[in-house]
Amino acid sequence: MADVQERRTDYGPPHYEQFLPPIIKENYGKWKYHEILKPGVMVHVSETGDKLFTIRAASPRLVCIDKIRDYCDLADKYCDGYLRFTSRHNVEFLLTKHENIEPLVADLKKLGHPIGGMGNSITSIVHTQGWVHCHSAATDASGIVKAVMDDLSEYFENMKLPGKLRIALACCLNMCGAVHCSDIAILGIHRRPPRTDHTRVKAMCEIPSVSASCPTAAIRPATVDGRASVEVIEERCMFCANCFTVCPAMPMADPLNDGVSIWIGGKVSNARSEPMFSKLAIPFIPNNPPRWPEVTQAVRALVELWASNANKYERMGEWINRIGWPKFFRMSGIEFQKEHIDDFKHAGLTYKRSTHLTF
Amino acid sequence: MADVQERRTDYGPPHYEQFLPPIIKENYGKWKYHEILKPGVMVHVSETGDKLFTIRAASPRLVCIDKIRDYCDLADKYCDGYLRFTSRHNVEFLLTKHENIEPLVADLKKLGHPIGGMGNSITSIVHTQGWVHCHSAATDASGIVKAVMDDLSEYFENMKLPGKLRIALACCLNMCGAVHCSDIAILGIHRRPPRTDHTRVKAMCEIPSVSASCPTAAIRPATVDGRASVEVIEERCMFCANCFTVCPAMPMADPLNDGVSIWIGGKVSNARSEPMFSKLAIPFIPNNPPRWPEVTQAVRALVELWASNANKYERMGEWINRIGWPKFFRMSGIEFQKEHIDDFKHAGLTYKRSTHLTF
Amino acid sequence: MADLPKTPLLDELESGPFPSFVSEIKRAAEKNDMSKDLLGQLEQSYREKIGHWKHGGIVGVMGYGGGVIGRYSDLPEKWPNISHFHTMRINHPSGWFYTSKSLREICNIWEKHGSGLTNMHGSTGDIILLGTTTDHLEPVFEELGKIDFDIGGSGSDLRTPSCCCGQARCEWACYDTMALTYDLTMHYQDELHRPAFPYKFKFKMSGCPNDCVASIARSDMSIIGTWRDSIQIDQDAVREYADKGMDIRSDVIGNCPAKCMDFDGKELHIENSYCVRCMHCINVMPKALRPGKDKGATVLLGSKAPIVEGAMLSSVLIPFWKLKPPYDDLKEIVDNIWDVWCEDGKARERVGEFIQRVGMGNFLDAIGLEPVAEMVAHPRENPYVFYEDYFEEGDEDEEEEG
Amino acid sequence: MADLPKTPLLDELESGPFPSFVSEIKRAAEKNDMSKDLLGQLEQSYREKIGHWKHGGIVGVMGYGGGVIGRYSDLPEKWPNISHFHTMRINHPSGWFYTSKSLREICNIWEKHGSGLTNMHGSTGDIILLGTTTDHLEPVFEELGKIDFDIGGSGSDLRTPSCCCGQARCEWACYDTMALTYDLTMHYQDELHRPAFPYKFKFKMSGCPNDCVASIARSDMSIIGTWRDSIQIDQDAVREYADKGMDIRSDVIGNCPAKCMDFDGKELHIENSYCVRCMHCINVMPKALRPGKDKGATVLLGSKAPIVEGAMLSSVLIPFWKLKPPYDDLKEIVDNIWDVWCEDGKARERVGEFIQRVGMGNFLDAIGLEPVAEMVAHPRENPYVFYEDYFEEGDEDEEEEG
Ligand code: SRM
Ligand code: SRM
Ligand code: SRM
Ligand code: SRM
Ligand code: SF4
Ligand code: SF4
Ligand code: SF4
Ligand code: SF4
Ligand code: SF4
Ligand code: SF4
Ligand code: SF4
Ligand code: SF4
Is the pTM of this model over 0.90? Predict the structure, then answer.
């Protein structure tokens, strides 16, 4: 116990002030306006007249320490050692000298990091661990993200879209990230009920909590081959994996049945419309590594459809709200299926309770 | 049984055709447009050029047969005996002769029946039985309706409002009528849990169905003074009277605690916005017969507030949706209370999940 | 007849510009003892702030399971003439059109057999004959039969269908509401008169989305007229409205929920594939705009008052049907719905509640209808999908199982 | 070190314009066996279309209850170097600002003790150090301590709070997001490091309603800047935008959700008492419009991902607070919320789910806050009100009881 008391704990993160470049310290809270000078490059102008230039570069988020050191080298070279990361995991370089912009951009491109993600563009995909680190994953995260962004990189590097478009990916229903409120969300899903390893349930799991964990009451205690275990009523399973979270002996992952679903029309900002949840667009696309071509195609088709039909500033969900979901389904060619109809707790509130229809 | 077979049943209502004036038969489905000539008087013009004049008169709905005979006399005098009632229980006279309009209007006024309820006006209140005929009533229907319409009759007789305003009244939570979708709804409510007559429960009611009838599980079987009966957990009661519907020995009516609540912002039509439910504005006003002055005052204040602030064509609910409920509460001076916050099944969906606020 | 009871409170409701129900009761009470006692009991209710009716017992007409609401005073000694005071619900003619002749006939019957008081009409649409005694029920029915009026619904049966005046007196009616109402009423006489459902069922027909019978709010099946093609525009008439001072941009276009209109000062343009058929522009320019020519109706399901699961509006089942007699398509779907609901619905569960409980998708499967996007305001937001099939190992040909 | 495993599938993810995570892993694998085995196992996952991680065990750092995610390969014989492959979550500095010096120090530690792979950053905001073994956890912590970096959250504790860059680099920040984030992080160190809640709890601070950290979607308490007075307008700058070709009517005014703007070609007028502070007009005319001067924040509660009750957005708790250090008002309410939630919350019940279960009204009573209209999108639609008091007979003075 003496040890523990002496040990230094709970000191918290370093104070941010030590990481702020002098220009920020001096103009903290005094910024007056900003301007995007070109894709990936913006300037913030202070009431004092000071100018801060920001260059935003794409990052794969999963970076090795040598890549971080590369960033550091660039920051040293052009930014007095100051840099930051964004809430969507891009890296930003903070410059005071206008003349440093072009050389830094050139160096970043050399490093293979596109510049962009600002203004009416598609910025990096918020995503999760996938097969790289998580036991829950129904698909990989980084692989799909790479494939999709390769395909959409033009939209990262220019600002030709009607508004911002935010893509997110989560590898399972836990939805680490903001998948539930994204313009386009790619969500890993299981489609096979848990396959119980009856030899391990008793040892690894608490049977009452396992039964209780199932929101649809699909799980009940049962004796299987003389062992205390559980049984799953498969028709009642909606693949939430809550049982697996509490009981490792009930794995959900399954190569034949795992894949992704695509959700659209969510947003987070309060700009114009209130924040919205993403809604199911495509119920299922099988996993097809390494480049998930069906997924990249589907995402591109959605982006193009929106880009060529939405009004200026209209986010994906705002556009669809204006034209109505039936028209969206007709325009996109996506087949409307039973899966699209909500049957969870507040399902009745999603039924169309008016005659506002297009034909 | 022979009797029953011979007996004429299931012949249905008379065919409507026999009640249609010739001009309607000839122009059925051929009407081209209409025009409101003045409050309560409109003309429908057919593709054939024929014109049908309609005069709409207020009716108390609860009418004695001699009043109906008065209507018949007028119909005979001016309309070849044809007349109809509306979906809101007004009486309409169908004329072909323009010169008959003024005399008929004069006769109706003589009879004490105002002309109006068309266009951007307040038409008659859809209402229910109240103390006149229903065992469920928490308030009277016809009395409040009369008092409110007396107060608002100017709006029945002119068309100066921004849009239509529909008022409805129901004397209990069963909500016979369209109280749940009205611009202003007056709803009779109980505020005291059922008072069980333990001497009669056993004889009059099925105890298991009584317990099951309660949506909040406030009722459980109990032995009271040696009798099989039920007991009510009063804190759990939300006064729905479902128990009373299945068990007469559990009356809800209570002079000290019954009264009305006022709900606003509902609509039925699909014009502009989709149909909407009414929302709670004033949680409770005690019964104050014969003229319920607090109710008429509250309704008038709501009408005036809307009339002087809404845009043209904007129904009550559309107006409030534009300005937001917090602003409505500030403007109306109605105090926002715990009662206004939904705590039923989908309550969470009524919380404000954005920062769209006015100050 | 004795004097009318003293009613100081009710008397206050005889003044004021609006017609008074108290005056109506008094007028009936002049010649009818039931109405006289009603007046007395009502005054007492006004004094005591409480109703004086007992829970209804089951009374009715031979061979019919509904249509009469039994009602008994809880003060039968004090008001003996309303110790029984039952209501009869009489099925009205479509659109509530009458001749003075037919109304007088009804009045005569009710003069003889009832209180002389009525509701014209009840909020479901029936002619409400307010207040009679059990022994008069049969005679009333017999006499009504002679003038071809039949009884309406009550209890767990089909209720009297009702409709807006439609093509009889409205230029916007997109189908013949009165014909359909009459046809359904006749076709479903048995369901109307003999309660056999889990709970009540109501039809209401409106000729266009203005929904003048509030069908989307208060009928288990709401049938609302609409059109599929383009709004008919008379550009001259548009200009006339503009010339007469209508601000077309703000009054018409500014209120279009689909934001699909444009006016260049001369021509009004409507991008009809975006129009949601809300009626607003037509409502404000009835001389210039009319619904399209390819007319029909949207069929919606499930509205009701709040008891017990909360109020509901009807939701889209069939986005568009032409709805022509003999309406076989509609009747087939109605029959299927009733079959499924009668089979699996719980007691006192309206069809809207039933659909929510079993899920729209499953309900559609059961009635044999394909899901279409028009049925939902938006697709699901939660990921809890019951995917029905999965592959098994060894399905080398990758056939789906489940 | 041995050669890198063959990864024909993963190799395909090295081409294309976007930076490749595969190249990152390979670069790490050049000098680190864990990363090499990770590459091999990942290739196997790509081939087999399934992950190869086992359910995590509980591992951690002495005195801390969270911050490490235990992870084990399910093929430890085949990939022995990742048989243990735990993640450490390190609390990042507010706003994710760094110096190259501090980042290099972190890299050096991770070079010595881990796989050399990181996430910059995790989606809660932490620096994620991906992959190490149990015996390295303490040494990493010790070395991090020397450079003043501490561990983040995991399990049922407070998670690392995060914020947008706010006043450091944004003209719209209505309060000091970074200062508040730092302050709360320091104040609640114990809650961050020792799980004692029913479930996780997250704070996210955004300086304005654009909400650049998605706080309304993914934090139990979302603190979002706003203002109470009028939008600051520079009319010359407005005209400049107009002159440069901006269609102010359609681009700005046409998108205002409150419909509270007007432009006569010269002056832009905003009816501020109707403005809902959505930011749109400011976003599109940053040189002309700015938030008002009376700045503060809206505090919202309850957002989360869907497991198990369905996803939620945060809802308004405090419409407007000035939010100045030492933030005592905020901390008091946080403490009250935690007390109530810890007392009555179920295991794995997020605070948003808890509020829905007990009811907002009751929750407010419990934390001692008055209900205000800003908390709801609209008042209740159903009539099932729990009126709390009623009169008893004999209350001649009409006092309320209950
Ligand atoms: C750097 C960053 C904050 C940070 O501290 O890290 C940031 C910075 C800015 N945001 Fe943001 N936003 C950032 C994430 C977000 C997010 C969060 C997210 O995407 O997960 C949102 C909510 C997205 C959503 O609604 O789904 C967000 C919604 C906005 C909006 C509203 C856009 C809209 O129309 O809905 C604006 C306003 C605008 O751009 O006009 C905005 C505007 C801005 C401005 C212009 C603010 C300013 O004056 O400095 C900054 C540059 C804009 C740009 O990138 O175009 N920022 N911004 C984040 C950059 C992420 C990235 O790397 O791409
Ligand atoms: C690492 C990270 C994803 C990433 O790649 O960035 C992550 C990874 C995991 N999350 Fe998460 N979550 C991460 C941010 C989130 C977020 C986003 C956020 O915090 O802004 C969410 C959605 C917001 C929310 O809190 O609801 C999120 C919602 C969940 C949930 C669902 C919680 C819920 O109430 O709905 C779970 C399931 C659980 O708690 O059992 C979960 C569980 C997990 C677990 C611990 C899996 C488990 O069941 O044990 C994952 C460990 C993966 C691993 O192997 O490292 N993770 N998780 C993120 C944390 C990094 C960091 O600390 O910075
Ligand atoms: C006679 C009646 C139908 C019937 O068969 O009985 C009827 C008749 C007409 N309605 Fe209606 N409506 C009638 C009840 C309704 C109802 C039902 C209700 O109130 O319970 C509604 C839905 C109300 C709601 O949304 O809550 C209704 C919503 C409309 C609307 C949409 C108004 C809006 O802006 O929301 C119009 C269009 C208009 O007036 O511009 C309309 C328009 C019309 C027109 C102009 C249709 C026409 O071309 O003939 C008729 C005369 C209008 C008037 O009264 O101003 N009618 N109308 C009903 C008269 C009731 C009464 O005595 O006052
Ligand atoms: C007479 C009438 C009110 C009126 O004054 O107009 C009426 C009167 C009664 N209604 Fe109703 N309802 C009447 C139209 C309605 C409507 C409106 C409609 O049909 O358009 C509704 C709302 C729509 C709906 O169906 O949901 C309505 C929803 C109810 C309910 C709640 C049903 C529900 O599912 O939510 C009940 C309760 C019940 O069924 O137990 C109810 C029950 C009753 C009972 C039978 C009371 C009872 O619990 O036994 C009332 C008998 C009163 C009496 O003494 O005569 N009444 N009732 C209406 C029927 C007249 C007619 O046939 O024309
Ligand atoms: S989304 Fe699921 S699989 Fe992916 S990191 Fe989060 S918990 Fe793991
Ligand atoms: S995955 Fe979810 S629904 Fe299926 S059995 Fe497990 S807990 Fe139940
Ligand atoms: S609303 Fe209630 S009290 Fe009034 S008539 Fe209907 S059931 Fe009776
Ligand atoms: S009134 Fe409703 S909530 Fe109260 S005890 Fe009766 S059934 Fe239950
Ligand atoms: S619903 Fe439509 S068709 Fe029927 S009366 Fe009303 S406006 Fe005319
Ligand atoms: S009917 Fe409604 S949606 Fe269609 S064009 Fe007219 S106003 Fe717009
Ligand atoms: S949330 Fe607002 S204050 Fe913060 S960075 Fe985004 S725009 Fe700026
Ligand atoms: S901030 Fe939004 S609501 Fe306010 S004036 Fe600007 S656009 Fe309108």
Answer: yes
